[in-house]
Specification:
Length: 428
């Protein structure tokens, strides 16, 4: 198998960057196919910390990175990120980064709208405020600007007028400052100059690489429970986060035949609002957050923390057709005397094996737990499954048995070596 998709199987922040980093060693190309700079990856490489939002993690391995059409691109955010990593010694050139030429743009007016929309909702979604949702609305509304529009001066002006014809009255109605045409046009022209050299026919290049046998890695952003259709709606992101999105989001249909590795944290976390039946409140949740360092990479927000939810995981495994699981941050549970796993829900006195879609039902769902003994020793130096204490192995076996997907990898620390993994990512 020469293609692998790595996707988050919970609400994000499962440590995908770390797993992608490992898999990149065997890949020639690493592709982002969804999300935008609402995503955030922290990677520790040789003691140095890298924070990436739009750039594929594989670039840190000297691999070629591609940002596919399915990504929402804030040009300024990408330029800032490129200068940040350059300052750390990673130089990005059009040979090492391909940017889908028809990628849709996220503009400053989308950011303002994101914040305004949140303030109008009864319960805010808790978005990252990066403008991703409103930019996706413009894409569906066929008003969005694309990178290739910046290469055609007349098209750009015409498209910009169309966009502002919608946004000017909207801004007025919401009490936002009116978007300034001249300033925005100048900004777009400058972004075009800086980014058009990276524009490439990504799908075509992936097809050519695939034909000559290159290993291609697809790096999912956000996670399946934040999928706009199948996540805990409406507390979701604005686009698809399923592995099936790798094909349209990269422009290479054969990505649909890739193997899928679902990344799941040994416990759960969530940023933003929305149902989280296995959330731990009070001191226990706070302790888990501190031990796991659960603060947003992008926004610094404290993440809500709780036990692993196997019932939801079984739902996402089916939805994503997961072939294998990577369990991350197992070491964070090292000090727990007992570990609970959520196996279903009690709603109004009735037992449910899966989380129903109703908003009130989800909010009322009480977790049904199974409790397993903890191991209360350090797993951080384990490099083979046999090195793990028996209780930790039993915990992993319970996850596999309940979800019905084998565990192929386990991470036990932030450093690159703190991983129990098979030889090659493309042999999974
Ligand atoms: P948006 O994607 O900024 O519209 O935010 C929608 C929801 O997705 C919010 O609950 C965010 O906190 C969440 N979200 C978006 N990106 C990420 C991510 O990379 N990790 C975790 N949560 C995310």
């Amino acid at each position: 198998m020469s293609q692998l998709i790595v996707v988050g199987a919970q609400w994000g922040d499962e440590g995908k960057g770390r797993i992608v980093d490992w898999a990149s060693e065997d890949a020639e190309l690493v592709v982002r196919y969804n999300g935008g700079h609402n995503a955030g990856h922290t990677l520790v490489v040789d003691g140095r910390t890298w924070k990436l939002a739009l750039l594929p993690c594989g670039l840190l391995h000297g691999r070629t990175g591609a940002i596919g059409k399915g990504v929402s691109l804030d040009p300024q955010a990408l330029l800032d990120e490129i200068s940040r990593v350059s300052a750390q010694g990673l130089h990005i050139t059009p040979d090492t980064l391909w940017l889908a030429e028809d990628i849709n743009l996220v503009l400053p007016l989308h950011r303002a709208l994101d914040v305004a929309q949140e303030s109008l909702r009864g319960t805010p979604v808790g978005t990252t405020g990066r403008g991703i949702g409103p930019a996706l609305e413009d894409r569906s509304g066929r008003r969005a600007l694309r990178l290739c529009d910046l290469a055609e001066p007349d098209t750009l002006e015409e498209r910009l007028d169309g966009l502002l014809a919608w946004h000017a009255p909207l801004a007025r109605a919401l009490g936002l400052p009116a978007p300034e045409r001249a300033a925005l046009l100048a900004q777009l022209q400058a972004w075009g100059e800086a980014l058009l050299p990276f524009a490439a026919p990504v799908g075509e290049r992936l097809a050519a690489a695939h034909t000559r046998g290159a290993h291609i890695l697809y790096e999912g952003a956000q996670a399946m429970m934040l999928d706009t259709d199948h996540g805990t709606w409406p507390y979701v992101t604005g686009a698809s986060t399923l592995p099936a999105q790798a094909a349209p989001g990269s422009g290479f249909g054969a990505a649909a035949r890739a193997r899928v590795l679902g990344v799941v944290k040994a416990y759960s976390s969530r940023v933003g609002n929305g149902p989280f039946p296995s959330e731990m409140h009070g001191a226990a949740g706070d302790a888990l957050r501190e031990r796991g360092g659960e603060y947003g990479v992008n926004t610094g927000r404290p993440r809500r923390c709780g036990w692993i939810d196997l019932a939801l995981l079984r739902q996402t495994a089916r939805l994503g057709a997961l072939d294998a699981l990577a369990v991350t941050k197992l070491d964070v549970l090292d000090d727990q005397p007992e570990i609970s796993v959520c196996t279903g829900y009690r709603i109004g006195g009735r037992l449910h094996e899966s989380l129903p879609p109703g908003i009130a039902a989800q909010a009322a769902a009480e977790p049904v737990y199974e409790t397993l003994p903890g191991w209360q020793c350090d797993t951080g130096r384990s490099r083979r499954l046999e090195d793990l204490p028996m209780q930790a192995r039993k915990y992993l076996e319970r996850i596999e048995a309940f979800v019905g997907v084998p565990i192929a990898l386990v991470s036990v620390g932030a450093e690159r070596e703190a991983l129990i993994a098979p030889q090659g990512a493309f042999d999974l």
